[in-house]
Amino acid sequence: MKFLLVFDFDHTIIDENSDTWIVKCAPERKLPNGLRNSYQPGHWTEYMGRVFVYLGDNGVKEDEMKRTMTTIPFTAGMIDLLGFIGENKELFDCIIVSDSNTVFIDWILKAANFHEVFDEVFTNPAAFSSTGYLTVQHFHAHHCAKCPKNLCKRKVLKEFLDKQLERGVSYTQIIYIGDGGNDLCPVMFLKKNDIAMPRQGYTLEKKISQLAQSLSPVQCSVLVWSSAIDIMSYLKLLIKE
């Protein structure tokens, strides 16, 4: 009996968007209008690449970025939830699927000592160049029309489950915890026995309820959360069963 927990990162594990938080490192803590307005829908990773070039051009170094990123608050109750999962790792496999990047997520999880809670992190690969600039790449290529160019979370989840099956691991239930529009695609992949946990008041919750209104509801059960304590209460019930 093993459960798979799938977490989004921004506005789910942390209470902010890591990509917009980094702007605190910019001169006057803001980006020039031309750069801000250069974002095109579906091309967030390319936009962040330009933001990182701007920060590098303005002399923002790795240690300053790291200091800034590790001040992001966790979502209410999340520290308790991750501690609980860490204590019950024999029951839970735990992965992150995020449109952030490897450097940010690594810094934040390690600073809070939570990196060992997660078995794998699927996100855009990032690294510092020899000149000290942060660079970010697409996670993968895919053919899903619903998702941003760089990341289809359904594809990530499906490939992870296939790989686990090859290793002889299958899950009693998948619990997907997220908040954003790009979390809908993987949620629609979940089966009747699985559970989607959208954050209250965020895009994912709204999209799931729109689907229910148009009589094409998701197959899985839906449990809305506002604090990660709600998620922990559900997991405690699961373990009791």
UniProtKB/TrEMBL annotation:
InterPro entries: HAD-like_sf, HAD_hydro_PyrdxlP_Pase-like, HAD_sf, Pase_PHOSPHO-typ
Keyword Hydrolase annotated: yes
Keywords, sorted A to Z: Hydrolase, Magnesium, Metal-binding
Stored Pfam families: Put_Phosphatase
Claim: Transferase is one of the keywords in the record: no
Necessary cofactors: Mg(2+)
Catalytic residues of the enzyme: 8 (nucleophile), 10 (proton donor)
PANTHER family: PHOSPHATASE, ORPHAN 1, 2, PYRIDOXAL PHOSPHATE PHOSPHATASE PHOSPHO2
Similarity section: Belongs to the HAD-like hydrolase superfamily. PHOSPHO family.
Protein name: PHOP2 phosphatase
Species in which this protein is naturally found: Thryothorus ludovicianus
